[in-house]
Amino acid sequence: MTIENPVRQNVTEPDYDLSQPLGIDYAGAFSDATDADRDLQQRVRTFVQDEVLPVIDGYWERAEVPFGLAKRMGELDFLRDGVDVPGSPRISLMGAGLAEMEMSRGDGSVATICGVQGGLALRSIQLLGSDEQKAEWLGPLTRGEKLGAFALTEPTHGSDSVSLETTARRVTRDGVEGFVIDGEKKWIGFGSCGDITVLWARLVGEDGDNQVHGFLVPQDTAGYAAKTIEGKVSLRAIWQAHIVLTDVFVPASAMLPGGRSFKDTGRVLQATRLGVAWSAVGHATACYETAVAYAKQRVQFGRPLAANQMVQERLTRMLSTLTQMQLLVAQMTRLDEAGQLSGPQASIAKYTCTRGAREIAASARDMLGGNGILLANRVARHFADVEALHTYEGTESVQALIVGRDITGVSAFV
User: Fold this and answer.
1) Whole-model pTM?
2) Residue 368, Cα to own-chain centre: how many angstroms?
3) Which end of the chain has a smaller Cβ tally under 10 Å, C or N?
4) End-to-end Cα, the chain, rounded Å
5) Cα→Cα distances 195→67, 93, 148, 249, Å
6) What gap in Å lies between CA 153 and CA 148, rounded to an integer?
7) Are 188 and 154 in contact (CB under 8 A)?
8) Angstrom distances, CA of residue 399 to CA of 275, 298, 347, 404
9) Cα 182 to Cα 81: distance, rounded to the nearest angstrom
10) What is the distance between the alpha carbons of residues 5 and 37, in angstroms, rounded to a whole number?
């Protein structure tokens, strides 16, 4: 008697398609976006789908920077973060936010490249630089021909960066008037692999004012030593640096004329803080999309996960949080466009949206079960990257203290 092998059904796991955009805007938060805004959003989405998602897992796993993608973003005019640059079309703040959301929906490291290059370095020069500095740097940074860094945080001064201890002193060397800078910086994106660093130091000495000033420091300047920070479990496809500055001399023309106090630094940070909130919406969107797609495609106990009441309730809760985040960033951006956005309002946007992104990422990761820790299934990368997003541009606690001071009129900062 011949015994035939039984037919093995439902053993081989299907290939899940978890990265398709769903165009989620349940409450019409972005309904007043212009055609130009939508066009930019769609162009970024196409770039993410066609050029970022097919390769980014490898860069993330190897902890390598996708320099080719950075250059490509410059070619596509995706590096400005809404900063107005001569010769480039104006991007509305809503358009810039939607673009940042779409880039973060693709990958946090790639979005951070835009944030560092455009939101911090480019914006600092555009807001605070001289005409000569703008002429030299805005174009190359916009086109991705040069990479910029923004060096504020120090090893011992993160949340209290206003207390930074890096110093600048006026000197004359070989007949050239300038400044000598000494100190350390840490967590500086592109600080070890870029071209120019916007560096913040306290002007000390007999003719110093003890205020925080901005300087443009080429990274090949003598005494500028930068080491890439290794061992990160978040934002692995962009390099941050620990920089040691020893007797770094820059000419007087390197000082940003508009960067004369920490208040001026704050002008840059307020704009980027709202951008971080938009990024959080992008990460949350990616995780929600993945959870919805997986719930429809994953079959357990003879039916899709989506057929379970518990799963539908969790998806609804995730959508509720995402919708609140979208409404918040949209309204804050409208205020920003009108010149009415305050620092505390930017802070509450960042505070709320990064918290919401963490919740959605955690729920999505759990919903995918074991598959939720695989890079190929998208959520794990966002789950890890949101942790960095939650911290940079001001931790949750710092944002709470900024808002709390606005609520009470009393500062709880030391």
Assistant:
1) 0.94
2) 26
3) N
4) 86
5) 13, 27, 6, 16
6) 15
7) no
8) 14, 39, 5, 8
9) 31
10) 59
Integer Cα distance of 326 and 285 in angstroms:
10
Hey, what amino acid is at 356? G
For residue range 65-120, list pLDDT tens digits in order: 999 999 999 999 999 999 999 999 999 999 999 999 999 999 999 999 999 999 99
Q: Which two tokens stand for residue 373?
A: 């820790």
| Residue 12 confidence (pLDDT) | 86
